[in-house]
């Protein structure tokens, strides 16, 4: 009953081998954390799961609910329920955050949107994220601060309700208050039935108040160690040193 299953995944970026045989199983409802030094391939893993065409799968496969998605487009994967929050979200002029979310929900469900219910849900989630109501009417990410962009990503995640959300460095560059707010948003997502999370991070601030099932250490394109939530604290104290020599 795996949600996401990755088998011996090898990925090249511009002809260079970055991921060197990743195995990963995520079940519905689980939260997995990927930690590792800079350049280890964490973001590459996120983009590969999402199907970014710049990331070439040269071996292995990725499946979602038992269905091979290795060759699916990003669009198709999004419709099947995978969401990726970017390290550096794009700024899109001419489309508001609110319509962006509405379009994304429509794309995914292919059904007419219940506008009133959506507005209500949007308002509730924006309150949870301490976002001013008028943010929904502003152009997507244009002129947003780093923290506001991250909150907008979490808002999209909550509204789209994917089966698997991948959060790449969602806490980078956030002040303490913004980390707490974003963390509350992630917690809200964890409370949804069967929602699974893959949290990529090299810091641990955001994890302090979140439930974590598994922590994986990624070094040089390979998962070299898997542990439970306590591994987060250990990395926090001692860094990645002991995993680099393994
Ligand atoms: P991490 O997220 O763990 O810091 P990345 O996945 O971003 O690591 O990068 C892993 C390696 O792949 C690095 O050597 C990086 O330079 C390279 N890489 C990743 N994405 C690209 C890209 N789009 N173009 C060129 N090189 C890339
Ligand atoms: Mg990265
Ligand atoms: Mg859950």
UniProtKB/TrEMBL annotation:
SUPFAM superfamilies, per database record: P-loop containing nucleoside triphosphate hydrolases
Protein's UniProt keywords contain Transmembrane: no
Cross-referenced Gene3D superfamilies: P-loop containing nucleotide triphosphate hydrolases
PROSITE patterns in the record: ABC_TRANSPORTER_1, ABC_TRANSPORTER_2
Every ABC transporter domain range: 4-245
Cross-referenced InterPro entries: AAA+_ATPase, ABC_transporter-like_ATP-bd, ABC_transporter-like_CS, FeS-cluster_ATPase_SufC, P-loop_NTPase
Sorted UniProt keywords: ATP-binding, Nucleotide-binding
GO molecular function per UniProt: ATP binding; ATP hydrolysis activity
Family: Belongs to the ABC transporter superfamily. Ycf16 family.
Name of the featured protein: Fe-S cluster assembly ATP-binding protein
Lineage: Bacteria, Bacillati, Bacillota, Clostridia, Lachnospirales
